[in-house]
């Protein structure tokens, strides 16, 4: 029994020595990995900040787009209502115009129709301008985002081989 105990103790000493060496190697490797991680994080910090800034700008652009889009939708709805009213007025004019013999009210109605048509055309132009401005803003934002992304990708390729 003493013989087995001595064998176990000697094996334990050998094993403990190997385990201590393994522990030391693992500790050094972990320190190297931690050091490398800190280095990489420091090297990429400015890119992370640029990315966050770009995300903030994108959020603002999306919010502006939603607001502009809502304005266009609202104006389109108003235009639709005005067009419906115009059709009703035309219908009423035709009914009353055929029964009336006096021409003065008919002239006033025609003038009102002409004015409504002009206002409708102006509303269409305004809607077109808003849509154009919104599209230009979206295209500019996309161009800026693409340019920023290309600008951040090019420096990365020069860093890759330095590890």
Order of helices and strands: HH
What is the β-strand count?
Answer: 0
Biggest sheet overview = none
* Helix proportion: over 70%
State the low-pLDDT regions, or none.
none
Q: Please compute the radius of gyration using only Cα atoms.
A: 39 Å
The mean pLDDT is 87
Helix count? 2
- How many domains would you count in the coordinates? 2
User: Which structural class should the secondary elements be placed in?
Assistant: mainly alpha
Taken from the alpha-carbon principal axes, the silhouette is: rod-shaped
How much beta, percentage-wise?
A: under 5%
Distance between the termini: 56 Å
Keywords: Cell projection, Cilium, Coiled coil
Subcellular location: Cell projection, Cilium
Coiled coil: 44-99
Organism: Micrurus spixii (Amazon coral snake)
Structural notes for this entry:
- There is one protein chain.
- Helix content is 94%, strand content 0%.
- The protein is mainly α and 163 residues long.
- Helix 1 (2-99) runs antiparallel to helix 2 (104-159).
- It is rod-shaped, with a radius of gyration of 39 Å.
- It starts with a helix and ends with a helix.
What would a concise description of this structure say?
This protein has helices spanning 2-99, 104-159. The chain is an all-alpha fold and 163 residues long.
Helix/strand layout:
Blueprint: H1 2-99, H2 104-159
Jot down its keywords:
cell projection; mainly alpha; 2 domains; 94% helix; 163 residues
């Amino acid at each position: 029994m003493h013989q087995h105990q001595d064998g176990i103790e000697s094996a334990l000493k050998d094993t403990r020595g190997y385990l201590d060496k393994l522990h030391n190697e693992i500790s050094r490797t972990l320190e190297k990995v931690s050091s490398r991680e800190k280095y990489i994080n420091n090297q990429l910090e400015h890119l992370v900040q640029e990315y966050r800034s770009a995300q903030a700008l994108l959020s603002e652009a999306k919010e502006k787009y939603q607001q502009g889009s809502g304005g266009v939708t609202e104006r389109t709805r108003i235009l639709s209502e005005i067009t419906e009213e115009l059709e009703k007025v035309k219908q009423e004019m035709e009914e009353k115009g055929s029964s009336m013999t006096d021409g003065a009210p008919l002239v006033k109605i025609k003038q009102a129709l002409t004015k409504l048509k002009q206002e409708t055309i102006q509303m269409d132009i305004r809607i077109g301008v808003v849509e154009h401005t919104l599209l230009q803003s979206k295209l500019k934002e996309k161009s800026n985002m693409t340019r920023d992304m290309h600008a951040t990708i090019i420096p990365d390729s020069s860093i890759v081989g330095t590890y």
